[in-house]
Amino acid sequence: MPCNVTTSNWNKLIGTDYTFAGHIAGYMVEIFLYGINLVTFSTAAYTLVHNLKGNTRWILLTSASVMFVFSTMNTSLTIYVVFGYMLRRQGIPIQIIRVRHSLYFVNNLIADMLLLYRCYAIWSHSIRVIIVPCICLLASFGLGIFYVGSSLYSFAHRRYIYMWMALTFNIVVTALNATRIWWMARETRKAIGPILARKYYSAMVIIIESGAIYSIYSLIDQVLKTVVGENLVILDAGLAQVVAIAPNLIIMQIGLGRQARDLESTIQTGRETGETVVLTTVHSHC
To answer: Per the UniProt record, which residue ranges are transmembrane (predicted)?
Structure first.
């Protein structure tokens, strides 16, 4: 396929009516979200460096840095596409589209692995709990690789399968976290009373909300495509940034020391001593 095609030829090739205004709006949304991504990444990195010690700090910092670099590359390609092709009313080369989606798929994999690790930690390092999410993760990533290398038609019209599978993974893991946190909050109430339990519960809700951001954004995107039409692309470009923002928020919570095992230690202490335990946030020194 030639690298430079006209907009009409591009639209004909992918069999859709993607509009100039729709693309520009979508790319502007991505650039706006990149600003949020920059702030959350900087805060997460600062929190990790100053509050966390050991190998965990470097693993999380490396993961966040890789995702931020890929997000930056995606935004750079967006700016290049806008000024190099869109404003000139030229078709976007399929090679650039494939690179952008490849960066998104890899970022999504890293983000999902962090979310999976979070679930694994919340469930007291239980392998059985994460078996189904692991299968969903591998299947969605395999589909991502397939679509990047597939024909133009499949790439343009079948990507929704990957999106729904990735969304399913996020919903399953978020539901597992919510279930575990609900149980732990109930046990906390029994061990140390409702007042202190409510404080920790509020902190844990932040963790759930952080993990649910991508799921909500992706769900809205897919529902709008189903209701309005698959040609609605305004939220698509922003996925490349949202997929990195959510893990940054989770990493910030880890850096601040809001670990599930801290709550479990509190519960166990309260049961064994039968005394009122002062709930504190303990920094992790993994």
So the answer is: 20-46, 58-83, 130-149, 161-179, 200-220, 232-251
pLDDT tens figures, 36-77? 999 999 998 988 888 877 777 888 889 899 999 999 999 999
DSSP 197-209: HHHHHHHHHHHHH
Distance, CA of 261 to CA of 4 (rounded, Å): 55
Instruction: Supply φ then ψ for residue 167, to 5 degrees.
Output: -65, -40
pTM of the model: 0.75
Q: Measuring CA to CA, how many Å separate 204 from each of 123, 143, 184? A: 13, 33, 10
Beta carbons of 198 and 175 less than 8 angstroms apart = no
6, β-bridge pairs: 90
Confidence (pLDDT) at 157: 64
Separation of alpha carbons 279 and 11, rounded Å:
59
Alpha-carbon distance 129 to 264, whole Å?
18
Q: How far is CA 274 from the centre of its chain?
A: 40
**8 and 222 in contact (C-beta within 8 Å)?**
no
With vertex at residue 82, the alpha carbon angle to CA 77 and CA 86, rounded to the nearest 5 degrees, is: 130
List the Cα angle 254/73/43 in 5-degree steps.
Answer: 25
Q: Which two tokens stand for residue 199?
A: 């404080």
Query: Which residue, chain included where needed, has tokens 């850096």?
Result: 255
